[in-house]
Amino acid sequence: MTSNLLPEEIRAILELLPKSADNAPTGEVSSRDFHRPKRLSSETRAALVEQVVRLAPELQRELQAALRGKLTIELVDLDEMNCDGLFEQLEDPFAIVRFEVRGELGWAIWDLAGAVGSIETSLGMPEVKDCKARKLASVEKTMLKRLVSYPLQRLAKLWKLDLKDVRVVDIREELGTWRDAGPTADSQRVAVQFAIDGPGGQSTLRLYLPGVVGNSPAPAAAKKPAPTAQAPEHIAGVPFEVSVRLGSSEIVLADLLHLEIGDVIPLGTRTDEPLRLVVEDRVCADVKLGMRDGNLATKVERLRPRGREE
Predict the structure, then answer these.
(1) How open is the CA angle 153-155-39, to the nearest 5 degrees?
(2) What is the CATH number of domain 42-215?
(3) Per residue in 257-284, pLDDT tens?
(4) Strand order through the sheet with 275-279
(5) Of 98, 140, 304, 305, which sits with the fewest C-beta atoms within 10 Å of its C-beta?
(6) Domain 7-33+238-303 is in which class?
């Protein structure tokens, strides 16, 4: 690594760096799984979560009215996911509400035992005990579709999704897959998970919605943190190099000359270890690799005080 700064200029810049983690940057950098890339930024995901949390009380009132009994519903998780293998662990019997958004399939999966208890209550049974998963009769399927449609329609309206062909399926051949949309099919879905405590006991309702990414709300503009120090005017415009060090390895020249495509060189760094932020050959911080606004980014986990570069 070459430097275009004089030693005294480097020292002056290092003097401006924070001396402790208390002054670490506050920008959010979300973790990234490179095998399952995501398109929602952490800010956009947070905006979606806030919308659903605000929606939950109204949704709870609607379901209580439909069931004529007490029920609570709250958001457990909201995230973007790949739908490959979504039904691999699915056991019979099941009853899933399937729907379409602009030709892409989506699904609503309610724990069947919990759904049975709610359905029986909505059909007038005075007391429901020991609900078990079982195949639903035709009238029960109609009621399942009605109950699931409350959260489904609310979210569709919130995120401007055009729902079509909403129906209950209980055989695997009718579930479909994300590939059914053809060559332009998108495997990504926004998964919304609700916890329900109602007549059937505690259960989970999971909604897998296509088309949310393009209609997701824009996050509020974040205020940039004020700089912790000002550079001296005479060096404020001087460029210097900042890099993230993935790792290093020592090999003998003979091995280096015999490298071929496909050879692997261990870097001596574990995948769960922090990386090193280097400013002009000096390690200044431990960082975590992530993603922001569609680009690779790093989040400062720990600043290294001067003289401590272990």
Answers:
(1) 140
(2) 3.40.1550.10
(3) 888 888 888 877 777 788 888 887 788 8
(4) 242-245, 275-279, 282-292, 295-303
(5) 305
(6) mainly beta
